[in-house]
Prior knowledge:
Number of domains: 2
Radius of gyration: 40 Å
Number of helices: 6
Largest sheet: 2 strands, parallel
Helix content: 55-70%
Strand order of the largest sheet: 1-2
Low-confidence stretches: 204-209
Distance between the termini: 66 Å
Strand content: under 5%
Mean pLDDT: 75
Amino acid sequence: MPERHTPETCTCGATLVGNARFCHLCGRPVFESIESEIVEAAQSPAHVPPVAAPAPSAPMPVSFGNPIALRVAFLMSLAIILVEMIPGVNLLLPLWWLGAGWCSVLLYRRLTGFGLSVRAGARLGSITGVLAFLSMAILIAITMAVMGKEVFAQMLKQDPQISQVLDNPPVLAAMFVIFLLIIFAMVVGTCAAGGALGARFAGRSRADSQV
C-alpha cells in the first residue's frame, strides 16, 4: 500500500498534526479514500447468512401407527355401522364395505394431499375393515346380551334340533368363533379390495406415493 503524506492544513484552514487521519477542528477526513470507505461501509447491506429451505416432509406409511389413517378408517367404519341400521339398505352390505374402502382412500388423499399406491390403498381399506368388524362385533354382543333369549327362542321354533347345539356350550362357542372369523374375512377382504380399487382408479394428486 503506498505511503500517504498528510497535508499541512485542512480545507477549513486548521493546521494538521503529523500523520493525522482527521482534522481536529472540523472532523473532515484528511484522505478522500477514507471518506469513500466510510460511505461505502455505511451503504453496504449487512451480511445475512442464507436460510436453508426446509426439506419436504416424507409421507407417513399407512398403518395403525398413522393417526390420519386411523381417523379416516374410524369415520368409514362408523358410516358402515349407520348403513347397517337402515332396513333394506343393509342387505347390500358387501357393496357398502367395498365403497367404504374406496372412500377411505379418497378422504385420506384429501386430508394429506398424498396419493396412495395400490398396496397402500389396500392396507388403508383393511384397517377400515378391521375397525368396522370390531364395531359390528360390539353391536352383535350387545344385541345378544339384550335379546339373546328371544333370538334363541325363535331359532328353536324354526328348528327344534338346534336345542342340541344350544345345550352343548363348546359346540356353540366353536360355531360362534367360526361365524366371527367368516365375517372378519369378508369385511376386511372386501374393504381392502375397495381401497386397492380406489387407489388404482382414483389417480394421484401428487407425484409422491406411499408404498
